[in-house]
């Protein structure tokens, strides 16, 4: 089976494609049978030191969407937007109801939210392939009602710092609008062409071992202009399932997009749900980020003619979590 040509996909048989791609790109055992990190193993101290040397101006850009009730979630799989509640307020302090001595007062708050309701990382326990989790473990032995007992997101808390590379596919493929249309499947050829177009005489768009790849489609830009609509779970441009081999051959450490689902939606089969996730997370051990805000970064990179930067994007070390909110920082 040809795994790299979208035109040759048998749309009626996702199971066969997924099974063959999983076998072809699988990283099980590559970093030992006890591995918890997958492709994040590709970022070491030397890679982080080289990434830190990319900082020239000290300008910092947050790549996070807001975490508030005006978010994209519409209840899919019981996902809601964050609910922020004040426990103590300035009003309480003014009225002296807090019980503190000598006039001191304070404010306190709490937030309740699904861990993947806004800008976030998918952990390695988030997706399974035919009952198997990352590195060939049984899914039920990894994630139980107590959480992810093996590959919990907390194990990556000091790992996701490295060389970030932005590929602005929206601007490259649709220069008039900067936004790809829903359902557009970004191919390996598209990724290579974007690298070539952005690089010019330099190599700041090159993607290789240990890099943190960011892909901008322009989907968030449209949601900002038109309203959330079906941003969370609906149609969107995204990576083609056939890019799994491209990501594997370049040894990308992690990849994130400005879309809800990372891969193209609707998916590239007649009946399917997130086949690239099924190949990438449990088989390749690839950490995936979704709903990142890449618009300001794209503008800053374009102005400088430089598409690489230090990316600092650790998750919250929530014990046993299969995903985490994140406030990614690109430092130029």
From TrEMBL:
InterPro entries: KFase/CYL (IPR007325), KFase_sf (IPR037175). It holds the Pfam family Cyclase. This is Cyclase family protein.
């Amino acid at each position: 089976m040809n795994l790299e040509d979208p035109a040759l996909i048998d749309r009626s048989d996702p199971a066969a494609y997924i099974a063959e791609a999983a076998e072809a790109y699988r990283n099980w055992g590559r970093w030992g049978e006890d591995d918890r990190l997958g492709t994040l193993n590709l970022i070491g101290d030397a890679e982080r030191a080289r990434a830190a040397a990319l900082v020239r101006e000290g300008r910092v850009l947050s790549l996070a969407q807001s975490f508030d009730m005006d978010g994209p979630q519409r209840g899919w799989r019981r996902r809601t937007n964050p609910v922020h509640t004040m426990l103590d307020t300035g009003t309480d302090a003014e009225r002296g109801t807090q019980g503190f001595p000598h006039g001191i007062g304070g404010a306190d708050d709490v937030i309740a939210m699904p861990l993947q309701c806004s800008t976030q990382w998918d952990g390695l326990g988030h997706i399974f392939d035919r009952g198997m989790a990352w590195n060939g473990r049984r899914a039920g032995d990894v994630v139980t009602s107590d959480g992810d007992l093996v590959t919990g997101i907390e194990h990556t808390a000091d790992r996701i710092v490295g060389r970030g590379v932005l590929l602005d596919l929206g601007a490259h493929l649709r220069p008039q609008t900067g936004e790809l249309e829903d359902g557009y499947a970004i191919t390996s050829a598209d990724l290579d062409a974007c690298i070539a177009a952005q690089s010019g005489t330099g190599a700041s768009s090159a993607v290789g071992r240990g890099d943190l790849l960011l892909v901008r489609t322009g989907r968030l830009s449209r949601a900002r202009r038109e309203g959330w609509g079906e941003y969370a779970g609906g149609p969107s441009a995204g990576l083609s399932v056939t890019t799994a081999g491209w990501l594997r051959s370049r040894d990308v450490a992690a990849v994130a997009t400005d879309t809800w689902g990372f891969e193209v939606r609707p998916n590239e089969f007649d009946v399917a749900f997130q086949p690239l996730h099924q190949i990438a997370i449990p088989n390749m051990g690839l950490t995936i980020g979704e709903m990142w805000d890449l618009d300001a970064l794209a503008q800053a990179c374009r102005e400088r003619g430089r598409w690489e930067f230090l990316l600092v994007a650790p998750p919250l070390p929530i014990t046993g979590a299969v995903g985490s909110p994140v406030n990614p920082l690109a430092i130029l």
